[in-house]
Amino acid sequence: MGNVVAGKFPGTVRLQVDPPPAEGYIAGQKIRGAVYCTSTKSLDAGVPLNVDAFLVGKERSLVKYEEIEYYYESFINAEGRRVREQRARTVTRYRYAERNVVAMAIHLADISTGVKQGVQYKFPFQVTLPQDLPSSMHCQEHSHVYRNYGHYDYRDWAQIGYDGNGYCSVSYDIHAELKGKGLFSTQRTNQGIKVLAAPLPEQALPHYVPPVSRDINFCCCFDKGKITFGAKIDDTRIGQGENASIDFAVRNQSEVRIERVEASIVEHCTWYAGGRQNDVIREISKAMFRPNPRWDAVTKSTRATLEGDHDEYNRTLRMIHDAVEVGDNSSYVNAPLQCLQTYQGALVTTRHR
User: What is the pLDDT of residues 225-245, one digit of tens each?
Assistant: First the structure.
């Protein structure tokens, strides 16, 4: 239920939005609701009133940064003289920015026939969310607060990022507005809504990483041979709560055994304001691969034999390709429900790799 607002208009303006069918309103869906107006006094026909509703979505960013500030301080030295010295101190500063993601107006009514005392007037509305809207989200610097839901009032930024840290958000509101003339000022109320981005395409988008070789050095200078590895992920477009299968293969031609192989999803959220930026980087999922005989180290003589065989590299490439294709060593990474949506905005960017 929206907040009740009362001012010079002799009554109340109330907003009610129908609840979403699931966790939130999905981009492309319709939102239905109504604006209710009740006057405690009768208004003559000569007092025109306009009733409107608005869908507003905003990116907001608060960047926290530090600067060296120089200042002068006066004091009495050991000789009894007053002197001024330049000193330096570190100060914390903030830059705030916001930008509309969507702004849609819905004109509901022009009331010019008068308003009766105590009568509640209902003005239904319906608005379709644009198909390309990003999900509601909130990310905060130096914190494990990662929210992809909820509503955050833009006025809260004055609290300096809720706990003194920078933050970014994408949030949506439905506003209702009653605008009068003469003695009556504009009255507003609003209700925050949660928006979910449209579902990803059902068709998988796989990616194959061709085999690459890496030299293995001990203490940065002693050559111990090389390893060659490749991988494939069955789908690079996964949503929150979904899994992706990774196939991995490696050929160890070094004198050092491979102890552990893991794959991870890293989330990188960046937000900008006033030419500054803050970043939050976190690992959101990790997969481990099971060891197999190809991880074992080779002897120095075997390594010399392999390096002298000009066809060995081509055989290694074919072996890795075939092992990846048949899924010889597979594992899964999961996109957790609390992860953020990949997004490229003007003030907020979220990438996954």
Answer: 889 999 999 999 998 889 999
